[in-house]
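Sanity check record (used in CI):
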Amino acid sequence: MSSAYIKPGESVAPTPLLASDPGLDNQSTMSQHSDDEQDVDEQWMLGFAEPADAHDLLRHRFRSKVGGRPAWLNPEQLPSSALLRCSVSGQPLHFLLQVYAPIDDAPPSAFHRFIFVFISAAGNKLSQPGAVKAFRCQLPRHNPFYSSDPDPAELPKQVQQPPKSDPWNVAEAEAALREGQSPPGLQGMHLYPEYELVVEPEEASLDDLGAAMQHHSVGNGDEGEALDDVSASVMDSVEAQATPAQQQYARFAAKIASAPEQVIRYRFAREVKPLCPGTTSPPGPGAIPACPHCHSARQFEFQVMPQMIHYLGVDADAATSPDWGTIAVYSCPRSCATSEAYTEEHVWVQPPDS
Ligand SMILES: [Zn+2]
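Expected output for Programmed cell death protein 2 C-terminal domain-containing protein:
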C-alpha cells in the first residue's frame, strides 16, 4: 500500500516553517508555509494521531494534539464556564483537540494561532448547534507568556495570574510536571487519551490518479479504448445500482484510500468544502454566519474525520458515545483581533449515517 502516512522521526517531508517562526522543530503546524503561495491554498494537509510524551505537548511547544488537557495558548483568560458548556445538554464540554495553525497573511496579533475544539458529553447529539464548539486563540510574537525565541527544552513559564477557574486545572498539571511528578487526576471531567497530531501534505488520491489515467488513455485513442468502454459501462451499471449513500461513501473511501488513518483534513481557503462520508450536505456559503467581529465571510478551515473516534477510547456500542460523519470548522479569514482571548468560531457537524 502506498501511503502518505509518515511516522515522526522519519522526517521525509518536514513541514516548512514560517519565515519569522521562532525556530521550533514543529511537525504539528497545520497550515503549511511555503514559497509557493499557489500550493498553499490548493494543498490539503492531513493530521495523524501519534503517541507522544506529555512534556512534548505542553503549551510552549505549540503542538497540535488530541485529548488530554487543553494546552491553553493564553493560560490566563480562558473561555467562560458558560461557553464551555454544551448548549444542548448543559453539561461541561469535553476537550477534543487543538490545532496550531498560524497563517501567512495574519495580522501581527496572530503570530501564534490555535483552534481548540470541544465536544458534548452527549455524543449522540453532536450535530445539534452548540454541542461542538471551536475557539480561536492567538497571540503576537511578543507576549507575556512566551519568549519571542522560545526554548522548547524548558518547561513553560509559570502563569502570573492563574485563571479563577479552569475545569482542567492545567496550571496544577504543569506544576506537577515541573516537579517531575504525574499530573493529578481530574474529578468529574473526562479526558480522552492524548496524542500528538502529526501533519503531512496529502498525496494525490487514487481518485485523482484514476482521473488522470482515464484522461491519458482517451488521449491515446488506441486499441485499449474498446476495453476501456466495456469496463466503463460495467462501472456505470454498478454505480446506477448503488444508493446515493453508497455512492457518497465510495467517493469518500476513494479519497482517503492513500492515507486511511488521517484524522484531520486542513485547508484554509475560500470555497473549500469538507469531504463527507454521509449524504447530509455541508452548508453553502450563505448558511455560514459571518465573523460577528469584523463581518468577513467565514471560510472552511479544517474537518475532524470519523476515524478520530477510534482514538478516543470510547465504547462504540454505548448510546452516548461520540459519533459523527465529520466535524467542520469555519473561521474568520482575517484572524481578526477581538476583545476575548478565545473567540468562538462556527462549527457544522455532519451526523453519522444511520
Ligand atoms: Zn473576524
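The CA atoms of residues 292 and 332 lie 9 Å apart. If this sentence no longer matches the regenerated C-alpha cells, the check is flagged for review.
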